[in-house]
Design brief:
By secondary structure, the chain is an alpha+beta fold. The protein folds into two domains: about 90 residues, PH-domain like (Roll); about 70 residues. Helices cover about 50% and strands about 25% of the residues. The protein contains five helices and eight strands; from the N terminus they run βααααββββββαβ. β3 and β4 form a beta hairpin. The two termini are about 35 Å apart. About 10% of the residues are buried.
């Protein structure tokens, strides 16, 4: 039996899903904002040259903004609402041999060798067991900063630098 180093209990909320989605889509927001600015510039140029305003361009810009704002809140809430697994309490145990994930309906023992990548973001850690599947661990569930530092030290000890992307303190 592996010695448990740190154990946390995670109760996800829709805001955790929103934070994860938004941390991964900043590039998309940059492109959308650049596109909106481009359309706005075209509309302004048209207005100055023709002395009229292109209502279609303004409607299009406003529509994109509304969709972005709604998707920022609605999509994560829907994902959370329709996932029974995300609604169950998750116990995560960081040990010398693995990361154990336990729920009422399922459990998983991720040996360190099977973790393809671990990335730290401002509000959470994301553990990838494949290129496309991951689990998010919000930092707010750790008891204190010392517990986060202890987990980071365990990660550094068990994962290679190429598989580990931690924030600089």
């Amino acid at each position: 039996m592996a010695e448990e180093i740190i154990q946390i209990k995670v109760n996800y909320e829709s805001k955790d899903i929103r934070d994860l989605v938004n941390s991964r889509s900043k590039l998309l927001y940059i492109f959308v904002i650049a596109f909106i600015l481009f359309l706005f510039t075209l509309s302004l140029k048209h207005f100055l040259e023709e002395n009229s305003i292109s209502y279609y361009s303004i409607f299009f810009i406003i529509s994109i903004l509304v969709v972005l704002i709604l998707s920022h809140y609605i999509v994560p809430k829907r994902v959370f609402k329709h996932s029974k697994l995300l609604q169950e309490e998750l116990t995560i145990s960081f040990t010398n041999e693995s990361i154990k994930l336990e729920r009422t309906s399922a459990s998983q023992d991720l040996k360190w060798d099977y973790i393809s990548k671990l990335v730290e973001y401002k509000k959470f850690f994301v553990i990838y067991d494949t290129k496309y599947t991951a689990i998010s661990i919000p930092k707010r569930f750790f008891k204190n900063e010392q517990e986060i530092i202890a987990v980071k030290n365990l990660l550094k000890k068990n994962l290679s630098n190429k598989n580990l992307k931690l924030l600089k303190n």
